[in-house]
Amino acid sequence: MGDSPRSFLAERAGLIDASGIRKVFDLAAKLKNPVNLSIGQPYHDTPGPLKESAARAIRAGWNRYTPTHGRPDLVEALTERIAETVSTEGKELIVTSGVSGGLFLAFATLINPGDEVIVGDPYFVSYKQCVRFFGGTPVLVDTYPDFRLTAERIEPRITKHTKLIITASPANPTGAVLAEGELKSIAELARRYALLVISDEIYRSFSYDGPAPSMAPLYENTMLLAGFSKSHAATGWRIGYAFGPTCIIDEMAKLQQYSFVCAPAPAQAAILEHLDLDTDPVTKAYRRKRDLICEGLEGKYEFTKPSGAFYLFPKAPWGTDAEFADEAIRNNLLILPGSVFSERTPHLRISYSAEDSVLERGIEILRQLADRGR
Ligand SMILES: Cc1ncc(COP(=O)(O)O)c(C=O)c1O
Description:
With 374 residues, the chain is of the alpha/beta class. It contains twelve helices and twelve strands. 37% of the residues lie in helices and 14% in strands.
């Protein structure tokens, strides 16, 4: 054992599991032309003008490191937009390698071993795994069946070890969008218990029943994380940002200097040119897809209608989530078992980020699978 390369691994490497999503994708690799309703990113390509800007930026020589915080003109432009609704006094912004980069820097900077972090269940997988990686304890707050992370559900789980609450609205995997009143109640709770709120707003432009409110204007101790992976269909570009108390952002910048160094320079240049991209047409198109899948599965599946992101999180009509998702794969349909995102096992994550023709085939297979029973 002593000479196995495994013996070199740090203990914290054992604190995280490979994402269950990977396991499904490995299985899926064996399928020929599957109906794919599992993807966690816009299915449509990055808009042409953005691609042109990125290509132009590379040709113009924007290929070197940028300052750690990001290009000053991008930092300024993003801060100006935030300042329209939020006081920037004592606050700062750093451009990160996607929201994932922001989450990593924030957790690394904030979590001491033993600190507890409130996370709504179902959750985006990184929250649980990354909190554990840094020695924290994710305290999972059950939000079934309506998937609303509310102050009432959070308060009983607060202890003297609680440091952070993570809010994600619109949410992955449930599509829940929190109302301003719900966010205000969480803000009041956080204020009362002196907790920091990390607000993941990556899906803010994917909100179908009215604008998704932000936590940032409601609570002074918010670490706002947002980005362009979804809104600009540019997941591979790795551009996000974190906006929060200066003393925390400064520490995150220190760590960024020694890790990510900076977010990709050509992508920063291209995003700067398209900060005001009109996302309404995409929102409209995805709203229609949301309605298509909800109407298609009505009566066959039990679900709470999602208001945002691009996922439906219904109950499996029979069996466990894994049994049902395996049967779907045997029928050439890719969906994800809910237990990838939850401690509970009866649900499924269905992504409607797909061409209409794919979505229609998927709905047909899902209806047949529901009828089949066990
Ligand atoms: C809720 C949520 N937060 C963050 C991310 C990560 O996004 P990024 O590409 O900006 O790292 C995702 C990606 O799926 C997500 O669903």
